[in-house]
Amino acid sequence: MKPNYVSAAEAAKLIKSYDRVYIQGSTSIPEVLLDAITARASELKGVEMYSAFAVGRRDAPYATTELRDIFIPRSLFIANSVRKAVDRGEAQIIPCFLGEVPALFREGYLPLDVTLLNVSLPNEDGYCSYGISADLAVSAVECSKIVIAQVNKQMPFSYGDPLIHINDIAACVEVDDPLVEVPTAVPNEKEEKIGRFIAEQIPDGATLQIGVGGIPNAVLNALKDHKNLGLHTEAMTDGVLPLIKSGIINNSQKVVMPGKSVASLALGSRALYDFMDYNEDMVFKDVAWTNDPFRIRQNPKVMSINSAIEVDLTGQVCADSIGTRLFSGVGGQHDFMYGGALSEGGKTFIAMTASSGKGISKIKPVLTEGAGVVTTRFQTQFVVTEYGGAYLKGKDLAQRAHALIAIADPAVREDLERAACERFGYRFLREK
């Protein structure tokens, strides 16, 4: 059997009305295929389009007002390519932990007909790699009737779960399409302070879960004198490359896949993608595997570092919404906060600047009306701003309020104290 190479227009003909289609994510959205499918809009109706964490170079072509009765976008994590459609009410989000989405596919809650992939050239045995996006793609392919793929010269070949034989792809479209690159965020002064504080709490031999952005990069920059660190994370970024190349991250102390840097997806620069290509020391796994809290806990000294949009005085963390406006998704925050807390010697951090870019305090008396709780007050350990760290584990609500006010923007501390007095009464005053 020979690979079925066809044009994008021919491949798009495999999509039928009322199909349920999963679109691969990370920075590998198969945009050539999406354009071809969108071009067939007049021939289709009721096609459900499922996407998750993904960084597109533009808005999704199917998620427009004109096509809202043809394509039904459903997001498992609101990404930039569908955010405007969600804001318009023409796309919807399905609330879920990212690590639990594969079970929604496998158990039939979200049945799939088609998966769209962006894969590497086949290796000598005929296997293509999903490259930078194992996450949900592994389970989606497993549960779909048809797989359509861009076979892309620009996609690195990664090891682990994301492999498919080219003869198992119903239609292959040859492309030479550059992957989206995510610029490395350069930490500002406030973020550097946060990074240094967190790095001081991280012991040698720790296993890192770390995200994307200025604060995670500040943490990584401050780990250059550490030894024998490990990596078991959801997203692989450029920030880890200096630590891997220097041997600081060598994965020697890990229990789960020792010697290997483990992730579910990657997003970064071409340098990261090139470093990944045929690199057996980097392994990409199904997100249900990487994000299983009971697997995460098996590694020693798990350090889970996540961000927040706002935190209230009891330690409730909102990370997915701005009031009633859903902005992103839960992702793996809950999974790694839970797994990290269970790990022997593990620590969990919510890291954020004290105020937003608009000068609004991120530490609030109560969460904004409509805001969702991603990490509950029962799970929060460290909350860190540029003013220091508040350790909440084992503290009562009045003690938590004092600790959080101490790391809030000084301009709002008096207001926060008044709110805490009203809420917690004598015990708050007594603690003071």
TrEMBL record:
Database matches in SUPFAM superfamilies: NagB/RpiA/CoA transferase-like
GO biological process: acetate metabolic process
InterPro entries the UniProt entry points to: AcetylCoA_hyd_C, AcetylCoA_hyd_C_sf, ActCoA_hydro, ActCoA_hydro_N, NagB/RpiA_transferase-like
GO molecular function: acetate CoA-transferase activity
Domain Acetyl-CoA hydrolase/transferase C-terminal as annotated: residue spans: 268-420
UniProt keywords, alphabetically: Transferase
Chain ranges of the Acetyl-CoA hydrolase/transferase N-terminal domain: 7-177
Record bears the keyword Transcription regulation: no
Annotated coiled-coil segments of the chain: none
The protein, known as: 4-hydroxybutyrate CoA-transferase
Species name: Prevotella pectinovora
